[in-house]
Amino acid sequence: GPAAGVPLFCLPPRFKACERRHAAQRRHPHQGQQLLKDLKDAMRDVIGINQLQEEIRQYLGIKKVILIPGSYDNNHSLIKDIGSQAAKYFLDIIKDNDIVSIAGGSTMLEFARSIKSDKKYNSITVVPARGSMGLDVETQSNNVVAEVSKNIHSNYKLLNVPDQLCEESIKMLTQEPEIKSTLELIDNSDVLVFGVGRADEMVERRKLSDEIAKNIMDKKAVGEAFGHYFNKKGEIVYKLNTVGIDMKSFKNKRETIAVFAGRKKAEAFIPISKINKNIVLITDEESAKEILKLG
Length: 295
Known about the structure:
Blueprint: H1 13-27, H2 32-60, E1 64-68, H3 78-93, E2 99-102, H4 106-114, E3 125-128, H5 141-152, E4 155-156, H6 167-174, H7 177-187, E5 191-195, E6 197-198, H8 199-205, H9 210-218, E7 221-225, E8 228-231, E9 236-239, H10 247-250, E10 255-259, H11 266-275, E11 279-284, H12 285-294
Parallel strand pairs: 1-11, 2-3, 2-5, 3-4, 5-10, 10-11
Antiparallel strand pairs: 6-7, 7-8, 8-9
Helix pairs in contact: 1-2, 2-12, 3-4, 4-5, 11-12
């Protein structure tokens, strides 16, 4: 069977090809040597992934690394495998009475849609990691939260607070009883699942004013997560006026799961891994290799 630690659905393509040849082999015994060679190659791929996972984990000093063989940049459909693997890990670690906070974004939406569970987690509450952004409604954290909750049959709370408010508005809104109770849930959440953004792309996507955008990029921001912009050292160089997860609560979760795909996001993830070592990273093989190259 497949090597321990690597899920069947994300085995290298040559493993699957070799399984198909195995069936043909039973009809044509003389092809045995080819089969043996294929199996050795496939096992080498699996062992290679396990070694790379451990190498990245040690290099970043984080809790765990789960890699999907292949390159998202060369094959965008790999995002489905990454989402499925994140969903599988998530279902393995959630416990009754957990509060789960989920960020927005297209990778998070893929993760949410991949969750398949017959078990009803009716003592779990799912909340957005932060206020909804004025972006694409489908990938807003509120929508992702509703999708996760539907798929694990849990309770959920939404946070209808736009991004980018002035201090006064935030103070006023956070005293609103419904919003206040949701913010407390976010603060006390046990599990956080989030995607990673590149600072330059997020500045554009959030349609920030030219002045703020220039300020963020002048401070050498490379990564973004839940409204915080980080430089290479992992220092926060800018924070949007938004409600939700802050750095203190980011560091105090039982489980923190970071999911991203693509080499260009590797640079954005490294500073986040410096802030919180209790992270499980789920990404593709090529992006992981990029992390090592950047080091």
